[in-house]
Every structure is written in structure tokens, then in C-alpha cells.
């Protein structure tokens, strides 16, 4: 597990934690099923958890209601370039956990950014990596 920081649009510091991997049941949290390539088999799970920022970079308070959604980017390339990664819009701006399922074994990298109700997206968080092992 690795702790990292993120910034929302004009907001400041939140933390994100990559927690569990491996097989997994349903937890009731929002999730995305990774679609593996033709030769890929996958059952690995990565659960992401974060804390929403409470303050904008200007110093103004940021209300939870101002956060519309989060955008998650993940892939097996450590730079998470747009061409080599998957983007998922997490519609629940009030939620602070998300599960990616169906990941084939290997190292997976994740980054997240928040989007406010005006559509302003913050910068991408630091990238965290997680090793998915075969079941």
C-alpha cells in the first residue's frame, strides 16, 4: 500500500490509498471491470480509497457538494499516457472508494483527479503502483 497526494481543480491536497488486490467479492462500492486483451485472463482486484480535499488552492473552503466526479486513469505503463491507459469516470463525487476488477497479473499503475461541478478538473495525482498476482 502506498499513500499519495492529489489536488482538485483549484483545490488542494487529498490522499489516495491503494488497498487490496487479488480475487474478491462484491463490496457494494462502485467498480469497473477491466476488459483484458484476447490472450489475457484476469481476476485481480485493485481497491482505491481517497480523502476529498477540503480546501481550494486559493485558500477558500471546498464543500463536498462541489465535487461532481473523479476521473481514474490506470494501466501497465508507469507513465499512464493517454494512449496506453484506461480512463474511467467515477460519477459519484461524494464517494471515496472505487474497485477495478478483472486485472491480469502484473504491475498496474493508478492516478486520479477530481472534477468540480463547473467541470474544472484538477491535476493528476501522483501515480501509485500495485502488483497483481495470479489467483
From TrEMBL:
Keyword Signal applies: yes
Signal peptide per UniProt: 1-20
Keywords attached to this entry: Signal
Keyword Signal set for record: yes
Name of the featured protein: Fibronectin type III domain-containing protein
Highest taxon in the source lineage: Bacteria
Listed SUPFAM superfamilies: Fibronectin type III (SSF49265)
InterPro entries: FN3_dom (IPR003961), FN3_sf (IPR036116), Ig-like_fold (IPR013783)
